[in-house]
Request: fold
Amino acid sequence: MIRSQTKTSYDSVVPTRARRPSEPGQKGNQVVNFPGQSGAAKVDAVKPAPGLQSIPSKKLKSGHSFSYIALFAFTLVLYARPSEFYPSPVTASIALVIGIMTLAFFVPTQFALEGNLSVTLPEVKLILLFALLAVINVPLAMSPADAAQVFTTTFIRCVAIFIVMVNVASTPARLKGLLFLGVAAAIWLGFAAINDYRSGLLTVEGYRAAGRGTGIFGNTNDMALHLVTMFPIVAAAVFGSRKKLIKIASALCAILLVAAIVLSYSRGAFIGLIVILVFFALKLGNQNRVGIVLGLVMVTLAFLMFAPGGYGTRLLSIFVPSLDPVQSADARRGELFRSLYVAIRHPFFGIGMGNYAGQMSLRGLVTHNSYTQVASEMGVFALGCYVVFMVSPLRKLGQIVRETTADRQKSPFFYLALGVEGALIGYMVSSFFLSVPYVWYVYYLVGYAVCVRRIYEADTGRLVVVQNRKIRKKRSLRTSRARTAEA
Reply:
């Protein structure tokens, strides 16, 4: 996934020259003038811009070795979920024990190396603000007990692991290890779904492949969400790897994930998959993008013709609820509008985390929409934190993709950033049909995005600053004019 680089040192980089004036918006270096120095000496005394302090040093990375091992073990247990398949007193508490060990390694190491609990990053500030709003939300909830249960059993753990992840997974090898676990879990789920289809064990509504266990992969739609978010990472490996064996293996894995998504019959996952394919086509097809999109439409139509029986009808039920034999589309639409109504009636603090299904739903159902769930249960301010928490790293990944496009065949960051960007886009689209804002999915994905950015900044020695469209168009125009003049 991440190719080897010629530059192996990841020491904190101190730039020796200011940024070029042709790159507006970038934070340049600050020259320090010491008393008694000559003009030449003043130029040589350079300190990095304030934001560069977030770039991890070699000492910091090596100091978090035990923290990373514990984080890796926790993620492995999170995906494997031994307590569900081999229930016992030991397996029931293993995730909690490893989580506590992870924090026990991380906190003193982080304070010893940097003197604080976490590096200062926008995403860390946003998730802490989101957590603060959740704390305030608990006593104000319609059912404080339900809100406290969601906060303590799931949400606060996601916050803690996210903070550990963005501080610890600061090398390509460490990030690759976490991505490997996510992809391996998706492959396992894909094989299980295909085996169920082959064996005729379609237990969900009589025609859908079931999830695994009772945790984050227990629900069919949640399982499909994980498959969708891992698909662009696997697809990026198909395009980015130089080794044919890895390309072939990645392509087979991508096909496996698509097949499992289809067998889940998840409408939200299918829409997310289509959006990801269009995103890849627009990013990788520099010319004739219209033709590429039309080709994708044709491929999708051909795919629907050969899909399992009833799949096309299942998708059409998004627009025609009467086509759904169990009327789930109609029920979801009703909960969507009701959750919007609740959000309008309780705009500031909502009705409490995890309170919608038990307190406001007419049928005891969740909102089936992550955005309206946050708005109705925690208020519009929390919704803003939730959305910006995803959009901010997404935009910076896009900037990395733009900066490395010209050197995509050599840069180890182009396809890596593209894959994680596609994963976040897939989540943002698919979660419009699922209630998963307090679960692990998005926190790992945003963690991947932050780690990619930090590794890129350590390699280049400069911050990733998103440029607006006008600046990008001006730079693109100047580049095209320069090429024309050279020709």
The longest strand covers residues 30-31. The beta strands are 30-31, 46-47.
